[in-house]
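It is worth pausing here to work through a concrete case rather than discussing structure prediction in the abstract. The textbook approach is simple: state the sequence, then state the predicted structure, then interpret. We follow exactly that order.
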Amino acid sequence: MAPEAKIKAEIAEQLPRHTPAAKVEAWLAARELPHSGLIDNTNLAHMGFDPETYEIKALIRGSAKPALVRTDMQLVFVFNRERRLIESRVTPVHTGP
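Step two, the predicted structure:
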């Protein structure tokens, strides 16, 4: 299974919709993944973010290391105003020359 698919499957199993933000933060901490903490998008509405949501962003570094390009995985968890998970995204981020 590709790294992205494996991470998505783990999140789907362990962090289903309506999971509290505190549990998502604990899940990230247990894996020693650096993350943003809970971001209130009300303050970012002028940049196109949904003011009715919160987000936590995390990064898994070096999930794939081809010869020239390193691939990290960005995790984005979106929460409603009750701080319950409504969406999670896993996106590869490529860094290289």
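Step three, interpretation. The mean pLDDT is 91. Residues 3-95 form one domain.
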